[in-house]
TrEMBL record:
Species name: Malurus cyaneus samueli
Pfam families: SelO
Keywords, comma-separated and alphabetical: ATP-binding, Magnesium, Metal-binding, Nucleotide-binding, Nucleotidyltransferase, Transferase
Listed GO MF terms: ATP binding; metal ion binding; nucleotidyltransferase activity
Stated family: Belongs to the SELO family.
Keyword Coiled coil tagged: no
Protein name as annotated: Selenoprotein O
Keyword Magnesium among record annotations: yes
UniProt cofactor(s): Mg(2+)
Amino acid sequence: WPGAVWPRCARSAGSAQPRTPPARAGAVPAGAPAELCAWALSSDSLLDPFPIDVIQENYVRNVRNCIFSVVYPTPFKSRVHLVAVSKDVLENILDLDISVKGSSDFLEFISGGKVIFGSVPLAHRYGGHQFGSWAGQLGDGRAHLIGVYTNRHGERWELQLKGSGKTPYSRNGDGRAVLRSSVREFLCSEAMHYLGIPTSRAASLVVSDDDVWRDQFYNGNIKKERGAIVLRLAKSWFRIGSLEILAHSGELDLLRRLLDFIIQEHFPSIAMNDSNRYLEFFSTVVSETTNLIALWVSVGFAHGKLPDGIGFRG
């Protein structure tokens, strides 16, 4: 990557990028840090196996022959306020002391204003269907995958900011999320977790005084709302559309590489030397997705769309 090497502590988004991806982050020992300088992420487990978008400028375009584009979050222009954090996520997943929420470095990190040591922010290229028809390239249009963290339990979690600015996949969007939808995601993901239903997790929610304009009811009545960012976590942010875009584009070698990576990292019950491993993968994903939908229905939740943006493991 062009630019200077990374310092140990967090630094501002948009600064020069590292020449080489930093070393993998290891678990922080018990006695969790309250300062982010004692904490690190890694992006190399996602960067090493796959080609990266060769264009580094951040503008909307069709992207081919890669899985990710390197793109930095765009910080809010106005003051940012902390709305909520998940104590469970901070302490038991990220190995951070709850007191970190009072740190200015932490506030800048979770709002996209600072990049943690070891992070190479990425936007993921994927495709999908809309209203029953193939829509082509979609991708992370307002989200940045800011790194992978392996905690003291040996769990590997991918961290993503949602609402953190434009990427090459933003299409006609502004790269932002608003407070009402961000509150909904924060509360629903944590509620699903405590109901025992597979879900992503929400670590934090911030709001700014930046104006974001939205037509909430799609009736032509555009109103001013406040911009917000959620820091969310999942074991993987790959989804069904991650494979579909490669199949539709005829990028079959990259499709096999991504399939093998997903199977090896997230489906240990499937043997990599099994000639039928892709069929086993398909069968497992269908079964687990069906089970997930049944769990939703059991608590009265209706998705409404169930698109190919759904993850492989709920």
